[in-house]
Design a protein that fits this description.
By secondary structure, this protein is mainly α. It has helices spanning 8-25, 35-42, 46-52, 56-75, 80-93, 95-102, 107-131, 140-160, 167-178. The chain has nine helices and no strands.
């Protein structure tokens, strides 16, 4: 959703609104955030807000795209254990943000983002392993969806339960669960 080659005012307004939404999610749940809260904190009028976004849900989707790009940039070209640890560390760093987002009905967007993120990782990794001669337990799309949904479920549980395990404990558990598909 971030727009290349656009007017600097548009970019600044999108950035201000996104940063405001992300900051407000550090403080309270998505349901409790109002358009007035966003406009006051971003120092824009309601008409300006509605010029760029239909509602706070569309702004949240824009924020999730930014978060996805942030996660993707930090995960590129990492081995599976390091990939999992890095992703969990990023989520833990923004503990309140993720927790407040999961308290909302919009959490399906976040779940989809995590599932897609893991799916791409597993799909790419399994394709590479297969090229190296590894025998896989089944077709790559099926394995990728199985493992991505499992890891997403664990991350969601972890967030919903107040990050009750450390990043290292979660990494070890998730890595052990996927180790059967990793090459020796």
């Amino acid at each position: 959703m971030p727009y290349p080659q656009q007017d600097i005012r548009v970019t600044k307004t999108h950035k201000a609104l996104a940063e405001t939404m992300m900051g407000l999610l550090e403080q309270k749940s998505f349901q409790k955030i109002t358009i007035n809260d966003i406009c006051q904190n971003a120092m824009v009028s309601r008409s300006t807000f509605y010029f760029y976004f239909e509602d706070k849900y569309q702004l949240l989707l824009f924020c999730l795209q930014i978060e996805r790009e942030r996660l993707e940039m930090s995960m590129k070209k990492k081995e599976p254990r390091e990939f999992i640890h890095s992703m969990l560390s990023i989520i833990k760093e923004r503990e309140k943000w993720y927790h407040n987002l999961f308290k909302s009905e919009i959490n399906l967007e976040l779940i989809q983002m995590l599932q897609n993120f893991f799916y791409e990782f597993f799909s790419d990794s399994l394709t590479e392993f297969e090229k190296q001669g590894a025998e896989l337990a089944g077709p790559i799309p099926l394995l990728a969806v199985y493992y991505s949904n499992g890891l997403t479920g664990m991350v969601m549980w972890w967030i919903e339960n107040g990050f009750s395990y450390s990043v290292d404990e979660m990494t070890l558990c998730q890595y052990n669960l996927i180790s059967d598909i990793l090459p020796d």
